[in-house]
Amino acid sequence: MILRLSSNDWQQLLDWAESAGDAECCGLLRGVKGRVASVTLTENVAPDPRRNFEVNPAALIAVHKDARAGGLPLLGYFHSHPNGLAEPSASDVALAAPDACFWLIIAERTITAWQPAVINGRVAGFTPITLTVEG
Fold first, then answer.
1. Per-residue b or e along 12-51, where b marks 16 or more CB atoms closer than 10 Å to that residue's CB
2. What span, in angstroms and rounded, lies between the C-alpha atoms of 49 and 54?
């Protein structure tokens, strides 16, 4: 599996992660067939945004409504690990939805791509996937 991201979106994600400081930034990826067409920064509504992320539910609902009306579908999520590695944490595994969405994790000016490994309707971990930056 390959996920494609534009160089402009790559840089935007790095900038948002840096601007968030010690808090985790987060947001939504929209696109089709493994190609990210847009990235949207959302509010991190987690009780402790320095340790976890939670995409603002209103933003997530708005994306789903827009997709049903013919807009780009939700392709995945992104978030930063300001004091960690660019790989899923135990919290990410515990809080992940058992869907087929991609995850981008940003840490130390690195972005990695993942998909949830779902077993019996539960996320058991994440599988790394190839992230290609284009243009």
1. bbeebbeebeebbbbbbbbbeebebeebebbebebeebeb
2. 8
User: What is the structure's pLDDT at 48?
Assistant: 96
Q: Please give the model's pTM, rounded to 2 decimal places.
A: 0.96
Report the chain's C-alpha Rg in angstroms: 14
Number of domains in the chain: 1
User: CB–CB of 94/83 below 8 Å?
Assistant: no
Q: Are strands 122-134 and 2-6 parallel, antiparallel or unpaired?
A: parallel
CATH number of the domain that residue 113 is part of: 3.40.140.10
* Cβ pair 105, 99 in contact under 8 A: no
